[in-house]
C-alpha cells in the first residue's frame, strides 16, 4: 500500500499529552493516565481525499478502571505541502463538519428521539478543536461496522436510499421551523470555488482523453464528438448543479459527497442491516438530486441504474412519509418534480460517469498517491489512459452515455 506522506506520519501535536487532555475531558477525570498509545493510518489509500485520518489505539486508567485498546478515529488537515493542502486550505470543510457534528446532527437526533426514532445517523463526536484543527470520533468498527468497496444490489441500495430520505426530511423540516433550532441552512453554500478548478484538474480533465477512446467504439462516434465538445463549458454547468432552487423550490441539506466509502455498514452475510453516514465536510443547501445521483454511480450497481425510476419513487415515498411523521406543514415536491430535478442536474451524471467513476475502479494500493495529489501533464495522461481502459469503466460508459445522449444532457 502506498499512502500519502501525510497519512503515515501524524502531526506532532497528536502526542501523549494531547490524548491525556482529550480523554480527561471525555471521561471527566483530571487524574486520567495513559499507559499505551499507538497511532496508525485510519483508512486505505484513496478512501479519503478531503482530510487525513488516523486511528489512535489508547490504553488508559480512569477512576481505578483500566481501559485497554480503546480505538479513536482522528481526522485532521494535511501538513505536507502540495495540491491536497492548498486545495483544502481554501475550503471551509472542517468548519462545516464541526457545525454538522456540534449543531445540526445533535438537533436531528433530538427531533428523531421526540418521535420515537432511535436510529443513529453518524458516529459520536468525542472532541473537536479549531486550533489545532482536529475532530475525534468513536471508532464504530467495534460495534461491527465495516467499509464496503463493491457496489450494492438494488435491495440493499434502497435501504440506504430510505435513510437518505430521512436525513433530507429532517433538514427540510428543521429549515421550515427555524424558530425552533436557530440553524440557517441557506448559509451552507457549496464549498467549491471557480478559482479552485485548476487545482482540481486531475478530476475534471478527462474529456480530452476520453473522446478518442469513445470514437473507436462502434455506434458511439457521435457521443465521442459530444464528449469532446463538453470541455469548454462543463465546469460552469457543473457548478450550477450545486446552486439551490429559488424559493419556493425544494431544497435539503445535501450530504454532498454521498458515496459508498463515506459510509460504514453492519451486514448479515449479503444483507445490509445498518448504515452509518460519515464525512459531513461538504454538506450544502441544494437539490436532493445531487445526493441521489451519487447513489446511482457510487453506491448502487447496474441494476439500480436501470431501476432509477423505481428508486426515485421509493425515495419520494420515504421522504413524504417521514415528513408526515414529523408533522411538517410544508409540502415536499411531487414525484414528477423530483424526476425533473434529476434531469436538470444532468451535468452531475456526466461528471460522475466520465470523471469520478473511473477513480472508483482504480486500485489505489498500487498507485503512488503523490502523483494523484501533484499531477503533472504526463501523470494525468497516463492515469486517464489506464482509467479508460479499465473494463468496469468501459462497461459503465457504454451503458449510461447513450441514455445521457437521448436525454439531451450531452448537448
Automatic annotation (TrEMBL):
The keyword Transferase applies. Signal peptide: none annotated. One of its GO terms (molecular function) is kinase activity. It comes from the Eukaryota. Keywords: Kinase, Transferase. Pfam families: EcKL. Residues 135-325 form the CHK kinase-like domain. This is Putative ecdysteroid kinase.
Amino acid at each position: 500500500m502506498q499512502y500519502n506522506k501525510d497519512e503515515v506520519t501524524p502531526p506532532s501535536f497528536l502526542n501523549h499529552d494531547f490524548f491525556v487532555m482529550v480523554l480527561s475531558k471525555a471521561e471527566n477525570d483530571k487524574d486520567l493516565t495513559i499507559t499505551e498509545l499507538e497511532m496508525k493510518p485510519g483508512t486505505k489509500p484513496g478512501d479519503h481525499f478531503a482530510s487525513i485520518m488516523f486511528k489512535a489505539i489508547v490504553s488508559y486508567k480512569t477512576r481505578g478502571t483500566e481501559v485497554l485498546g480503546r480505538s479513536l478515529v482522528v481526522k485532521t488537515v494535511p501538513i505536507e505541502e502540495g495540491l491536497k493542502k492548498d486545495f483544502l486550505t481554501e475550503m471551509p470543510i472542517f468548519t462545516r463538519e464541526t457545525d454538522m457534528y456540534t449543531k445540526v446532527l445533535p438537533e436531528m437526533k433530538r427531533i428523531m428521539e421526540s418521535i420515537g426514532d432511535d436510529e443513529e445517523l453518524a458516529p459520536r463526536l468525542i472532541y473537536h478543536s479549531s486550533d489545532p484543527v482536529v475532530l475525534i470520533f468513536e471508532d464504530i468498527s467495534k460495534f461491527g461496522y465495516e467499509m464496503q468497496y463493491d457496489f450494492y444490489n438494488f435491495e440493499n441500495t434502497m435501504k440506504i436510499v430510505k435513510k437518505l430520505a430521512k436525513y433530507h426530511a429532517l433538514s427540510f423540516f428543521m429549515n421550515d421551523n427555524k424558530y425552533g433550532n436557530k440553524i440557517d441552512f441557506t448559509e451552507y453554500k457549496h464549498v467549491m470555488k471557480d478559482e479552485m478548478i485548476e487545482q482540481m484538474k486531475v478530476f475534471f480533465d478527462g474529456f480530452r482523453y476520453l473522446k478518442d477512446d469513445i470514437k473507436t467504439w462502434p455506434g458511439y462516434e457521435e457521443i465521442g464528438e459530444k464528449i469532446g465538445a463538453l470541455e469548454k463549458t462543463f465546469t460552469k454547468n457543473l457548478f450550477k448543479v450545486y446552486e439551490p432552487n429559488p424559493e419556493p423550490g425544494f431544497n435539503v441539506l445535501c450530504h454532498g459527497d454521498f458515496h459508498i466509502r463515506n459510509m460504514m455498514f453492519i451486514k448479515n452475510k449479503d444483507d445490509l442491516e445498518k448504515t452509518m453516514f460519515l464525512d459531513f465536510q461538504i454538506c450544502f443547501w441544494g437539490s436532493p438530486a445531487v445526493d441521489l445521483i451519487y447513489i446511482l454511480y457510487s453506491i448502487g450497481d447496474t441494476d439500480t441504474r436501470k431501476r432509477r425510476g423505481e428508486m426515485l419513487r421509493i425515495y419520494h415515498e420515504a421522504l413524504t412519509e417521514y415528513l408526515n411523521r414529523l408533522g411538517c406543514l410544508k409540502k415536499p415536491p411531487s414525484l414528477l418534480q423530483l424526476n425533473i430535478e434529476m434531469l436538470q442536474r444532468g451535468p452531475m451524471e456526466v461528471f460522475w460517469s466520465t470523471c469520478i467513476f473511473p477513480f472508483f475502479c482504480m486500485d489505489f494500493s498500487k498507485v503512488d498517491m503523490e502523483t494523484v495529489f501533484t499531477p503533472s501533464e504526463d501523470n494525468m495522461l497516463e492515469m486517464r489512459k489506464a482509467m479508460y481502459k479499465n473494463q468496469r469503466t468501459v462497461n459503465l460508459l457504454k451503458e449510461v452515455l447513450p441514455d445521457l445522449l437521448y436525454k439531451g444532457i450531452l448537448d
